[in-house]
Predict the 3D structure of the following.
Amino acid sequence: MLRLHLRKNFEMPKNEQYPEEFVKFLNASPTPFHVVQNMKNHLLHHGFQELKEEKPWSGNLSRGGAYFVTRNDSAIIAFVLGQDYVDGNPFAIVGAHTDSPVLKIKPISKRNNEKYDQIGVECYGGGIWHSWFDSDLSVAGRVVYRNETNEGYQLLSKLVDLKRPLLKIPTLAIHLDRDVNQKFEFDKENQLLPIAGLEDKQLKKDASCASGEPEIDDFFSIKSVVERHHRDLVELVANELQITSDIIEDFELTLYDHKAACLGGLHDEFVFSGRLDNLTSCFTSLHALTASMQDDKEGKCVKVVASFDHEEIGSSSAQGADSNFLPSVLERLATLGFNDSTLSKPLTEAEKLKVATRKSFFLSSDVAHAVHPNYANKYESKHKPMIGGGPVIKINANQRYMTNSPGLVLIKSLANLSKVPLQLFVVANNSPCGSTIGPIIASKTGIQTLDLGNPILSMHSIRETGGAEDLGWQIDLFREFFGQGTKILETGFVNRKN
């Protein structure tokens, strides 16, 4: 009934190609490094310029300009300066995160047991780890290697995606564990080990390679990658990058589900994929930002999209939301030297950021829990978001989410203007509540914040389920936020559209 009601009262999203584009984005983004690279490509295609944190910005940025900056290749902040921007004007920010719960290859991953080659992996984040059993797993990540010259060598990095079903974490046959359907328990250190091949194949390869290697007298503080990892894995990585394995210094490799993301359901209403948490928000905020560039040519604010790494483990890193990445970017933008000539007394450098942040608004966008038809009793009875029902406003009295009444009224106004349906979510009192980057950014900057996100099922599984139509709803909402949100904040006046 709700689905029919929504279709009757709201227009369909303007761009029906978003689901297909999102599937392509998911399949090209197996790690945060790939996420940022693909976001960069999209921004460059739309005329954005790349900045470097280690270089000065003042005097090099212009009103109406579009720019982005990255950190660690796994976090990115993109922004568009309004044509009428002056220092101290507000920021309209949408924040997301690039990481998801995954299995990462350990620094010394080489394992052997019962004549199987195995790969040592480390659990990253709070994954539903039993969902990783019996999946075809591939490997992707970042590789650091030497570029040899006559004068020495320099270190370079490349992204790699092997795009092959290489690993498997097999379950135990039911004949050997008759209680497996009652309760599936396992030791994450010893029973979450993927098998990579048969030991004798690797032993022959190692013997062949060792016989042709010269004696080396050099001191090495840490063993080489071919000693710490299976040689064949290292050579697969090297071959993919078209380099030799001996120049690889190190890598950060992640396992992922080789099965491609796709649209599903009787009417293609679902997106089936891993990493919907939170590549959904990376995708929608990115497309909303670039689409908004054609909406308001005389804007006074700075439109910002910030996608951080390490949210799944608390955000406490140099490239996480709890770092100085966003505050330092905002400080630079608030002090570019575009002074407001209408003020009788110009703002000091120290005042500009403080004034700007108090006018600004931050949308913390992370996926939300859609109601599960088989576990409906786990949800608060009056707050059961559904896939296909539009973005979900997340509220928590204990400030796990930052939504409050002024923010809710603002987002409701924007949704009315853009004809986007909204849903409300509160966790049941007898259930734990997750959190987002919202409380972190709000406490670090003092910027008014609201938490929202598109509804999905099986959050933190290797394979999650989201809604195809919800992508367009969220993009339209964010686009309206970039166009009208800060004007409403500054004036308190909602411009009605015909």
Remarks:
- The first strand starts at residue 49 and ends at 50.
